[in-house]
Amino acid sequence: MASGLRIVTERVGDGAGQPVLDPDNGEELMHVQPGVSIVLGNRPPESPGTLYISTKQVVWLSDTDRAKGYAVDFVSLSLHAVSRDPDAYHSPCIYTQIETGAEELESEDSDSESDNILNLSKITEMRLVPSDPNQLDTLFAIFCECAELNPDPIEEGEDGHNWVFSADQLEDDGGEDDDSEWAIPENSSHSIGSNGNHDLAHSVVQLHINDQRFEDAEEMEQDDKNGHH
Amino acid sequence: MLSCMEMCVQLFLSVFKDLVGSEVTVELKDDLAVRGTLHAVDQFLNFKLVNVRVVDPDKHPHMFSVQNCFIRGSAVRYVQLPPNEVDVELLQDATRREARSS
């Protein structure tokens, strides 16, 4: 499913041009950041270039070579972060990890591939170095936003995107329609986490009651209890 | 009625909601493990961590310590939870029930 980094050779427009997007499928441009170099794996930085962030992908286009560009879908970015640690990299940058889908990856230090032959499918790290490091937090936030727009296709989003920043933020668990079918839990004072809200215990009891197969499970539990005494 | 997958996700989402503010270690499917404070978690089990550092810097020399980090839910293999802050029995019970129902 995750495709990894790919080369972009097509552009629209004059001059340095812009990436080709897919508005018919809902893709929109979210942000353009000029003055960005791109660092793929262990390779030296490539610049100058412009970063285009759409709702689906990140595209870097060289400002000087219309045939040179790279793109990666957000579904392939397993991690992104703002890197300011000079021990990690000499310039502040957005650090990303790319999921290539390859099971066994060769070491990135392997010189079996000549530097001139770029095997994009093996690139698992990408850094985006803006000429203006003050833009990093903005870029990070946009990356987060776009990543959230691209969940894995299996799970579909429900009402809208909900980040939980504290345990006080309670969400409705499950559909409103189902509430009437569930009994009130007995031990709702127990909770799994230290912040101590009832959500999990409530969910657990809801799960228990909602599935008829638990009739058998209850008998098994009784046997267990007898066995352990 | 929720699908089994949705129930599992909700179960874990509840666990992580309770752990916001705690130190967790997230191990990704590519073996990278990062440790940081859980800042937020969303319905896709994406994680936002703060004050992040790599668990094994010798294994990952290019890696980093960062202020903020966003980890895609689908990239996560394990999340190590602080044992003192989790009711392990209740969690095991809940996951056992999940296993039976699937």
TrEMBL record, chain A:
Extent of Low complexity compositional bias: 187-198
Subcellular location: Cytoplasm; Nucleus
Ranges annotated as biased composition (Acidic residues): 169-181
Record keyword Cytoplasm present: yes
GO biological processes: cell volume homeostasis; chloride transport; mRNA cis splicing, via spliceosome; spliceosomal snRNP assembly
Protein name in the entry: Chloride conductance regulatory protein ICln isoform X2
UniProt region (Disordered), positions on chain: 168-229
InterPro entries membership: ICln, ICln/Lot5/Saf5, PH-like_dom_sf
Keyword Membrane listed: no
Gene3D superfamilies, alphabetized: Pleckstrin-homology domain (PH domain)/Phosphotyrosine-binding domain (PTB) (2.30.29.30)
Regions that span the bilayer: none
TrEMBL record, chain B:
A Gene Ontology biological process term: mRNA splicing, via spliceosome
CDD domains: LSm2 (cd01725)
Protein's UniProt keywords contain Cell membrane: no
Biological role: Component of LSM protein complexes, which are involved in RNA processing.
Superkingdom: Eukaryota
SUPFAM superfamilies recorded: Sm-like ribonucleoproteins
InterPro entries named among the record's database cross-references: LSM_dom_sf, Sm, Sm_dom_euk/arc, U6_snRNA_Lsm2
UniProt family annotation: Belongs to the snRNP Sm proteins family.
Name this polypeptide is given: Sm-like protein LSM2
Keyword Ligase: no
Recorded GO CC terms: catalytic step 2 spliceosome; Lsm1-7-Pat1 complex; P-body; precatalytic spliceosome; U4/U6 x U5 tri-snRNP complex; U6 snRNP
Family annotation (Pfam families): LSM
Signal peptide residue numbers: none
Keywords (A to Z) from UniProt: mRNA processing, mRNA splicing, Nucleus, Ribonucleoprotein, RNA-binding, Spliceosome
GO MF annotations, alphabetized: RNA binding
Gene that specifies this protein: LOC105165279
Annotated localization: Nucleus
Sm domain span: 11-85
